[in-house]
Amino acid sequence: MTNSEVGEPAGVTGEWIHAKTGILNRRRAKDDEATSDLAVIAARAALENAGLTPSDISLIVVATSTPDSPQPPTACLVADELGCDAGTAAFDVNAVCSGFVFALTTAERILRDSGSRYALVIGADVYSRILNPADRKTAILFGDGAGAVVLGPAAGPDRGLLAGRLASFGADRHLIEVPAGGSRLPATAETVSEGLHWFRMNGRGVRDFVNAEVPPAVRTFLADAGVTPDQIARFVPHQANGRMLEELAEPIGIPFERFSTSFQEYGNTGSASVAVTLDLAARSGQLNPGDLVLLAGFGGGMAMGLALLRW
Fold it and tell me: How buried is 73 (Cβ within 10 angstroms: 0-12 exposed, 13-18 middle, 19+ buried)?
């Protein structure tokens, strides 16, 4: 979907969208595709890349804020569609755009504690189903997508996931929300007619939050891990908005040239964003063995997830 296609219903031009966000295109799921369908495609690609089969997987964690339905967990649909063994643990994580990093650190801890070998961690969202096409604050930013990784034994003690940190800021929860459809405001004809099931975002408030909270959190996280920003070979952040990411480079202390990005062609894919960008970085040769890679998710909740890994 081009900027012009999404811009017309929102009353803005394609040029305006690019100037404000850096985005050129984004993808949309087919009418008969749901979040689980995209998650399964990503999962199969990750398994093939790892040389594993579904029977090797003991845990599936799907990060999403647009599940197929409120119940059952989308992860259970994914496990069944993949043909995983009966009893494979599968559950969802909803930390909105931080979801993939939350899911990754959670799965890593479960593997360590249980002694299991392999987990599938998937970020997937179909935001097009909850966007108001006339809302230029949201409709121009988001794309649908999914990304996945297989998490398993690292090659050595100084490889793999080295550290993780999760944080939430509930006092700022109003900045990003879907007001209706839950137990507070169940679906009624009135909530639908009032547009309370659409995704809503205070763009300026989100930008202020990210600028105020992300740089100091990243600097503290790296310092606690004994790493300096100049040692980070690649920074893979949530692809919220290209202009927002450019603003983070100087205060974080990582040059923008070392940012891996996907927003130009995929937009903001929510929970899938970090995973999609990590995959593109790997397949384009941006990541080399031994590189220190920093993942950062931030978004609704408000929430923030950081993970440091050695490729």
Answer: buried
Q: What is the DSSP letter of 267?
A: -
| Confidence label for 115 from pLDDT (cuts 50, 70 and 90) | confident
- Of these residues, 3, 94, 241, 268, which one is catalytic? 268
Q: Which amino acid is at 135?
A: D
145-151: strand order across its sheet: 89-93, 59-63, 119-125, 145-151
174 in catalytic set: no
φ, ψ for residue 168, nearest 5 deg: -135, 150
**Residue 97 appears among annotated catalytic residues:** yes
Pick the catalytic residue from 76, 84, 94, 238.
Answer: 238
| pLDDT > 90? residue 251 | yes
Strands 176-177 and 200-201, by their bridges, are antiparallel
Rounded to whole angstroms, how far apart are CA atoms 269 and 260?
15
| Catalytically annotated residue among 3, 84, 97, 241 | 97
pLDDT, tens digit, 9 for 90 and up, residues 252-300 = 999 999 999 999 999 999 999 999 999 999 999 999 999 999 999 999 9
Residue 51: count other Cβ atoms within 10 Å of its Cβ: 8
Distance separating alpha carbons of residues 63 and 29, to the nearest angstrom: 17
Among the listed residues 141, 65, 128, 71, the one whose alpha carbon sits nearest the alpha carbon of residue 98: 65
